[in-house]
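Technical annex B. To support the medicinal chemistry partners, we prepared a structural model of the target in complex with zinc ion, based solely on the information shown next.
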Amino acid sequence: MKTVSGEIRLRTKPDFDMLDITGQVSMFVAESGIKSGTVTVFVVGSTAAVSTVEFEPGMMKDIPASLEKIAPSGADYEHHKTWGCDNGKSHVRATLIGPGITVPVIGGKLPLGAWQQIVLMELDTKPRDRTVVLQVSGE
Ligand code: ZN
C-alpha cells in the first residue's frame, strides 16, 4: 500500500463562498498513480467545510439560505463571549457540514455522479486563505 499527501491552497470570499475543487482532487489522484483505494479531502480550520454538491448557480443561493435558517446570522452565540469574535454561526455551520470527505478511488478515478462536485465552502465572516489537505492511499 502507498500513501501520497498534498494540499490545495485557496483564497475565499467571506459569508459563504463555494469553490469547485473536483478538478484538483482528480488530478492529484491521477498523479499519485494509485488505482484502487481512497482519497481524503480535509480542510484545515473550524469555519470552513468540504462536501459534495451539484455545483450550479441555484445551489450557490440555496445553501446559504438554508444555513441561515439552521444557524442564523443575528442569533446570540456563546462563542462571541468566549473570544469576542462574531463568527459563532460560522463554527456551527462548519461543524454540521463537516471538515472533510473520503471518496473511493476506482480505476484511478473518483466515482462521482455527473452532477456531483467536490466543494470547499467558506463559512467564516472574513476572507480566508484556506488549505485543503489531500491524502490518497491504496495501490
Ligand atoms: Zn470565532
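Notes passed to the chemistry partners:
The mean pLDDT is 98.
The chain is about 30% helix and 35% strand.
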